[in-house]
Design goal:
The protein is mainly α. About 65% of the residues lie in helices and about 0% in strands. Helix 6 (about 85-105) packs antiparallel against helix 7 (about 105-120). The chain is elongated and about 65 Å long.
């Protein structure tokens, strides 16, 4: 946000007209300037996980993956993009294998970590990985 726009918004928040309500809506509270955030009352609306999951399933995402993506993504579009990528599916399956190995053979699980880390080999995948 440009400095002039931020200042104008702050002035409106601090000195609103009578009977004026200002609603600021953001998917990410961390992206709102601290000076603006400190002058507002934050109301968090929970994400409708069931709707998210159902929508993802209707778009071909497996139920277990849809449940995971519904929990950790902010939008259905982002969840679909990640869920339909081959690296996510490969990484998801490798994570499940790693969990099985941790339960049955910790030494093998340690060795398997290299296969798991190869799946998340670039920053974008690491950022989007769960």
């Amino acid at each position: 946000m440009h400095q002039n726009a931020a200042n104008a918004l702050l002035k409106s928040i601090e000195e609103p007209e009578n009977d004026t309500y200002i609603f600021l809506i953001s998917q990410n509270e961390n992206l709102v300037l601290p000076t603006i955030l400190s002058r507002t009352q934050v109301i968090k609306f929970p994400k409708n996980i069931e709707y998210f999951r159902n929508t993802l399933e209707k778009n071909g995402i497996l139920r277990t993956q849809a449940e995971l993506l519904a929990q950790v993504t902010d939008s259905i579009e982002a969840a679909l993009k990640i869920g339909q990528s081959s690296w996510f599916n490969e990484g998801y399956n490798k994570c499940l294998q790693e969990i099985k190995l941790l339960k049955s053979s910790p030494a093998d699980a340690f060795l398997y970590l290299s296969a798991l880390t190869d799946t998340f080999d670039d920053k974008e995948r690491q950022k989007n990985s769960l």
